[in-house]
Amino acid sequence: MTALLQRIGAPSRSSSALKSLARCVTNSASKEVVGAAGSPKPSQAIPYQEADANTPKELWQAPNHPGTWSRGQNPRPHAMSGPRFEQKDLRFQAAPFAAMDAVAQDPIRLVDGRRATCDGGGGPLGHPKIFINLDKPGPKPCGYCGIRFEQAHHEH
């Protein structure tokens, strides 16, 4: 930085002023917000609790599913908190249906070989083509779209 200031012809005392200013800025970071490595500390996790049918409908995670479907997911009232969601009524916020029921209603696709391929329907709305190993018994879901495949066992 000093070489750059000398190249543009700035006086040397301005470089010391810049250094002291940089020192003040770096020392003014809050110790509560920034961890030892300089990265922000994660917010406190909300304990997992399963919602039931008695929970008010506007607090359901989706219109067809009362609770969260993974442990890493925050419940709807806690997920929509903070200054971005102040003065927002959850009853008027978008609440799309959970796709779990639609995927569960889709029949398991039987495959003759030991491998199934899935590309999500192909075309621009699909996903990358993946191969699913069907050696172990039971249906195996696609990691992208959730379509389930199972090996068709033929009687010999």
Structure described in brief:
This protein is an alpha+beta fold. The protein contains 4 helices and 5 strands; from the N terminus they run ααααβββββ.
Write out key terms for the chains shown:
156 residues; alpha+beta; 3-stranded mixed β-sheet; two-stranded antiparallel ribbon; Znf_CHCC; Zinc finger CHCC-type domain-containing protein
What would your notes on this structure say?
- The chain is of the alpha+beta class and 156 residues long.
- It has 4 helices and 5 strands.
- Helix content is 21%, strand content 11%.
- The strands form 2 sheets. A 3-stranded mixed β-sheet has the order 1-5-4, with no helix packed on it. It has a two-stranded antiparallel sheet with strand order 2-3.
- The longest helix has 16 residues, at 12-27.
- It is flat.
Unreliable stretches = 27-35
Residue share in β-strands: 5-15%
> What is Rg?
27 Å
Helix content: 10-25%
What shape does the CA trace take? flat
- Classify the oligomer: single chain
How are the strands of the largest sheet arranged?
1-5-4
Structural class of the helix and strand makeup?
alpha+beta
Global mean pLDDT:
71
**H and E order:** HHHHEEEEE
- Count of helical stretches: 4
User: How many strand elements?
Assistant: 5
Q: How would you sum up the major sheet?
A: 3 strands, mixed
- First CA to last CA: what distance? 79 Å
